[in-house]
Structure formats: structure tokens, C-alpha cells
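Dear colleague,

Following up on yesterday's call, I've attached the two folding results inline so they're easy to grep. Please treat them as preliminary; we haven't cross-checked anything against experimental data yet. The first protein's sequence and C-alpha cells come first.
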Amino acid sequence: MPDRERLVRTVTELIRIDSPTGEEDAIDAHLSARLSDLGAAVQHDAYGNLVATLPGNNGSAGEPPVMLSAHMDTVEPGRGIQPSLDANGDTLRSDGTTILGGDCKAGLAIVLEGITAAMEDGGLGRSVQVVFSRAEEGGLNGARNLDFSLINATNGMVFDGEGPVSRICVGAPAQNVVQCRITGVAAHAGLEPENGVSALLVAANILTRLPLGRIDHETTSNIGVLEGGLKRNIIPEQAFMDGELRSRDQAKLENYTSEFRRAFDQAAAMYPRAQIDLDIRNQYQAYRVLETDPALMDIARAVTAAGLAPALETTGGGSDANVFFEHGIVALPVGIGVRDFHTTRETASINEMYDAAVVCQKFIRPA
């Protein structure tokens, strides 16, 4: 069985290794060494993703390995994190000036502990392929650049979900990224404002036309960045907008993408002297699995074997699982005991992390 104290040591050690997106080398080196010590064959692809393979010992030669995945990077503010346990010895949090980094250090620690416990209890049973990706935050870039020729797994678990491990994510949306650069006409705001075209005003006009926020139960949209202007006395010549559309329904995603394009076209007609360069591109595809899917049933078996009740849920967020699905790998996200992702209020429950390590062990070492 997993060792609770070892799990706490592992996760706190990982949290103290700074790994904001793009700066994963230190944690990669640590994880590579840990996996090598466990007997894994460790590889890296050209992007720097870590892929480690461990053979099983239950006579399943020829069967594909199962995947255990998490990501190595964290969001900001995520440097110099000081994790501490509260008085009850369960809730792990930062000092409040940074994130905790439980997303996804808890997932990494769970995988390491699950493998270690399985090996201590007689071996893995099934062959395992560990995939620790880089640059998951902000675009799933590590997974999208993963060298899938290194991957033999066809199903598995992604340890990157909120809440308890019993929460299995069976559906997630596709995402289209929306970016636009607007070029207006600069002019002195006090002497000749009528000769200028404000790029920010054009952007504001566009914003009033867009369907934003919660559109329906499976569709959302947002403009998260609006930048522009140089000084208060200059009509702003440049503006930049960065946003997204998400839906678990592809037809809805296409429909609202068309509505977005119409809004930008309408603004362009209103401001013929402005140049509007719009780029809408797909970042990842949606997925949905049925309750009878063998990969889902395999995860549910492990959850049940750990004494928990599987809870099948859909989400509005994306994960590396979306990219794995595009490559024919049914790897589903499960909870890692973390809450309030991406905030300085982030916490991790050691009890729930321990449960997740038990599930991980039972997944790779079936009874």
C-alpha cells in the first residue's frame, strides 16, 4: 500500500522545485532520476516531454502498457513556494503569496507513489508508460508536441483533475483560440482627434457584439486580454485582443465561431480606415466517452477497488487528455485532491492524494 509520509515528502519536495511554464528542466531532472531509480527506461522527445516505460510482471507480454500522465509545469506566481500542512495534518497550502503548485505536483507525486507502492507489493502487474508533459498550462503545448511514436499505450489515467480521485472526467470541450490585432490611425488627442481612428474604440465595438461568458451548459467564451495605446494624448493606433471559445458540441463551436467572425466583419465595415487582422484556430478537440467504454470501466474498477464510488463528470476545461484522444489514446483525467487551481488559495488534501495513490496502484496492479 502507499506510504502516506513518503507521499507528503514527495509532493512537498516537488512543490519546492520551481517549474513555471518554460522552465521545467530542474523538475524534469528530478523526476527522471526518481523514475530511473525505479527501473524505468527514461526518454525525452524533441520538445522535452518525459516518457518512461516500466515492464509489467503478470504475464501480459504483448499487451500495450497503460498510461499514467501528469504535467510538470505550473502557473505564476509559482516561484519560491513555501508549502505547509495545517494543524490537522491533511490540508497542504502555500503561504498565500504564491500558488501551491498542487496543479500538477500532486499528480506527479501520486504517480510516483502509486508505482513505488505497486513495486513494493510484488511488482507492477501491467506494463506502464509514464508521460510527464511540459507546457501544459496555457495551451497543452507539451502534449501537442509530444512524439507519439514513443507511445505504445492506448488507454490510461491523467492525474490532473480537481477534487477526489473518484471524479472521472468523461467529457471535455474543444477550444478555439481567438486573437486579433487592430491597427487604427494615430493622431494627437488634443490637436486633431478627428484625424485618428482609435484601435481601442474598434475593439470596444467588437466586444459589444460578441456572445461572452456562459452561453449554454456546454459552451463558453471569453476575451481575456485587451491591450493597446501608448500615451493618454495619442489616439491609440494599436490594440490586441486574446480570447477563446469552448464547447463540448462541435456544431455549437462552429456556430459561435461564425458569430465571432461576423462581429469582427461588422466592426471592419464601421471603421474602414482600420485594419483588423483576425486569427481563429483550433487548440484541441472535444472528447466524450460512454459508460460502457472499456478504458473508463478499467479506471472505474480501480476506483471501486480502492473503496470509492466512481463519479462520472464532464468539464469545461481542457487537459492533455484532449490531445491524447486525438491520437487514439483514451486516457481520462481523475481528481488529485487539489482545489482552487491557479490561485493563491490553492490547497491539496493529503487524504485525497493518498486515495489517488491507492487507485493508481490498483490500476497498474489489478487484483
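Below is the second protein, in the same order (sequence, then structure):
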Amino acid sequence: MTNPNLRAELTENLDEAEWDWLIPHAQRDAVIVVAVGLDILDVGVAIASDNVLEVQNWIDEALIAKPSLEQLGEWNSDRTKRFNTLIVQPFVLVQEKLAA
């Protein structure tokens, strides 16, 4: 049974961050990249409520993953790159913000 307040609680944790601020989390292997087009809140709720089937489905479809070496290299070269972020202990979900 999922906590009905979980989505509301996670919504309060939604934030925006520069890559520079996320590096320590990447170094402890806690960053999970959420594909653009997937609702970061949906992912957070599924992870926080242990919805293994949904999370595994996203992993299988490569919609959520650990950052690749290419992504890390690209982000390290542009430390002001911005992301939507959501903390779901012990992870930090990140989603690239597309340039306007």
C-alpha cells in the first residue's frame, strides 16, 4: 500500500541543481538519470514505495540508469548544466533540463 502523502512529500523535494552540486552524489554512485519525457515524480514514487516491477521495467527500457561515462564527461565539462532533481534516499534522481 503506497502512502497517499508520498507524492506530496516528494513534490516538496523537487528542485533544480547545477551539475557542480551533484558531483559528490555521483562520486558515491547515488545518481540515477531519468529520461526526458518520463515524469521524475512518478519514478520517485515508484522507488520510494518499492514498486519493483515498474522500476525494473524502466531499467529494462533504459529510461532510468546510472550516468554513463560519456554523460559524466559531458557534464564535467559544463558544470553549470542544470537538472531537475529529486532526492529519494539514498538516491538522487536527475533529469537533464533541455536548453530553452
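For the second protein, one point worth flagging: The chain has one domain: 6-96.

Best wishes,
A.L.
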